[in-house]
Amino acid sequence: MSSPTHGSARPDGVPTRGALTAVARAGATHPVRTIVIWATALLAIVMASSTFGGALVNEFVIPGSETQQAVDLLQEKFPERAGDAAQIVFHSEQGHLGDDAARADVKAARAAAADVPGVISVGDPYAGKGGGISEDGTIGFADVQFDKPSAEIDDADVQQLEDDVRAATDGTDLQIEFGGSVMDSVQPESHTSEILGMAAAMLVLLVVLGSAMAMAIPITTALVSVGLGMTLLTLAAGFTDFNEVTPTLAVMIGLGVGIDYALFIVTRFRQALADGHTSRDAAIIATSTAGRAVIFAGATVAVSISGLAVVGIPFVAKLGIGAAMTVVGAVLTAITLLPAVLALVGHRIDWGRLPARRRRTPNPDRGPFARWAGLVTRHPKSMATAALAIVCLLAIPATDQRLGTADAGTNPSDTTTRKAYDLLAEGFGPGINGPLFVAVDQTGDPHATEELAAAIAQDPGVAAVAEPLVNEAGDTAQLPVILTTSPQSEETAATLHRLRDDVIPAALEGSPAHAYVGGATASYEDIASKIDSRMPLFLLYIVGITFLILSMAFRSVVVAAKAALTTMLSAFAAFGALTAVFEWGWFGNAIGLDVTGPTESFIPMVVLSILFGLSMDYEVFLVSRIREEYVRTGDARGAVRTGVAAIGKVIVAAGIIMGVVFWAFVLGDDRTVKAFGVGLGVAILVDALVVRMVLVPALMHLLGRRAWYIPRWLDRVLPPLTIEASEHPEPEPEPTPVGAA
């Protein structure tokens, strides 16, 4: 790895050149001014976001898909029905909905719903228009049509709908529940996960850093960076749509990397203080050296996440953009605000030191990680085999993974949307909760919809075809189709493909009419299909980027290939955990899951993109230290032992911190957020504790000097990439073996 020239540092080792050094010096020399500038900038961004920012949406646009074609056609031809709907579900617990008293209660509920702002119509279950009554007469529903999409409906109006309808039926024997896309878009805000994640991170930092002040600094700067990232996200939402899950994922990633990046710099700062440097110089040294690695780490995460754009699904790409915003916030905070804070705190960073740590002098050559490094390098084959066995064991369930999208049927059992879902399935069959709709452009063939309805009704997977809704011009119709199976069923996907590929083309053969199958269930299948078709390109992108960057940084194709392959192992372990928890139900009760369902189709791809960025960070921190020692001594195997002993504590601490932050989010109510928490939590813990601390050192010890192989032609072509500058000049040239072309 390249190193600074002798002229880039003072005799005492304090860097003097470079843009990062200049930034660090400005913050460390004028800490109060820097903090004031930060506070002013944050205030300005907050004001801008409150003025120009936008709301989050719960929409899934899938460009080019059949579902999107159906949606676009209906929005154009039925502008009055462009809004979303809620459902009021009635359950007579003692009598029959056909009784006079029940009819009066249902009428009162419908009247209350009609008075809610934004409601343009309320279905009549007794007339079969926008509603219905079950065969046994105990369960019914009425559709409540709003004039806007769910993303634009005020939460207060949705709450008023629920409150007013319940008030209108208070004292009756009717059980009232609510479902539909409008209700799904309203999620109660809770910050329990963030609080628990911060508490766990504080505990780990206190143990690792040994003092209350050293613990408080990374926590504080992480909160600032998350605040910056979330404010930027709100501002960006005023110009483009972001899915409602985006901020939670962004906070999850932002807290983890924000604490980790600060931890790296704080650790280097304390080392510089211990070497006798002043507070100002120590802050400059820490930021100029570890800060360089932080910038690289943040850039790799952002580059990896950018791979989501190749999927071609906007909301998936924007999940990555939202997460990248908090990562950028973490990097900016670490290299600009943190030096000022460290310079102000100085030696007070040891305030509140744990009593047991007072007389301890850190010695990497004799500590627990030195002993661990010795164990791994003495028994590399056994340790590598054990690590592979652990990862493969965790990955086994992934062979049974089924991708799809969960619905209200997987919501917590005490929520009104889940109760509505169960009642509808009980009264009308499982297909009522995932109806399809067929958008028919019947220009030139006004009888096409009737013929199509008759053909669709003959399919064995179809339970019923409702009366078509025709627009005023008579050229477009909407045909609701109820299936015999639930939205999550594999048979439902088979029926959808049969309708699209066989039934509808046969029914419209020779007709100028066109038909498109849409609906929430169809959109989930379209998302899964698009992701499946783009997965090879996505893998090529992130693996290729990883290989290229690490080859440039370490001048070794072996190190780069090893990093990509071992990261895939961590990913498969995460996919196995997702399958075991969410599809098999293992430990489901412990995290608030009472039903199983498929893994959301986009989650593995998002987890993989984030993991590649984060795991590359750990690989870089570890291999950089190993390479530094190898350059100094020329002893490839000894460098592995020294590198693990020196940097192992930081990698383990960083991995545990990020892992517990992710795991804290499994306590939230949203199933998608739980899945991200489990997937990323397992991935990071396995990657940091098993892959980077066991498998990678064992493999590099077995490879010896061969680990640093690169073809001569590639070495000439690839530009050098310096990741972390050392405050002490390294000898040149580096004794890196280069293979023949």
UniProtKB/TrEMBL annotation:
Its main location: membrane. It comes from the Bacteria. PANTHER family: MEMBRANE PROTEIN MJ1562-RELATED, MEMBRANE PROTEIN SCO6666-RELATED. The chain crosses the membrane at residues 35-57, 195-215, 245-266, 293-317, 323-345, 382-399, 538-558, 565-582, 602-623, 644-666, 678-703. Belongs to the resistance-nodulation-cell division (RND) (TC 2.A.6) family. MmpL subfamily. This is RND superfamily putative drug exporter. Keywords: Cell membrane, Membrane, Transmembrane, Transmembrane helix. GO terms for cellular component: plasma membrane. SUPFAM superfamilies: Multidrug efflux transporter AcrB transmembrane domain. Residues 211-344 form the SSD domain. It is found in: Cell membrane. Pfam families: MMPL. It comes from Nocardioides ginsengisegetis. It is a multi-pass membrane protein.
